[in-house]
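Ligand: GLP. Inputs:
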Amino acid sequence: MYKIFETVDEVSRYTAQRLLDKIKALPAAALGLATGSTMEPVYAQLLQYLQQSPVDLSKLTTFNLDEYIGLSAEHPQSYNYYMYQHLFNKLNIPAQNVHLPDGLTTDIETACQTYSNAIQALGGLDLQLLGIGSNGHIGFNEPLTCFNSRTHVVELSEQTRIDNGRFFTDQSEVPTHALTLGIQDILEAKEIILVATGNNKAEIMAQLFTSAIDETLPASALKQHPNFTIVLDREAAALL
Ligand code: GLP
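Predicted complex:
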């Protein structure tokens, strides 16, 4: 299903409400969370809802999608830092329930397996929130990633490094590799919400709506999921 709203504000209210509804219905939910500028207003809205009407988050578990390799949790462009700035510092989720891939891990293979296993041990994610890259990546699963992938290392495409360069002072500082949840891990979530806003997502959204399910467009894997919602603002929906 898809929903098109006029503004980013409406997109964020709808998405935050879906997250809130999930937490209320399932206090011990395992949530898959995403980063990126699309999610900033979503998290701000979720915090506002939770301030207005507090909910017990002591049983909630979260797993983040991805992290740059080589950036510490203290690095302002790490996804770890992003999550604490935008959400976790302002919420009472027990620290041991918050999971983020470790960009500084030295045993990458074990770290990847442990990450996917921890999600499976909880019976999979109850809800996965996703943004989308301009090349159709989800998490950091770049085009041609196998749909049956688990948490793994990716070499970032040039397009992704250019897109994400806006957050760094210099393009050369953008990491070349990242850890990401695999597409299979994402597909095993019981519910998936993909959010896209702004002009720069219009082309990839048009492709997503028309394309076959194919590894050249990672987000197309989601089209086989039985509980998948795409949430768009008018700009991202402009070419549909
Ligand atoms: C990054 C993240 C993705 C995110 C995408 C879009 O590459 N790895 O998880 O969906 O960017 O980000 P934005 O919302 O800033 O456009």
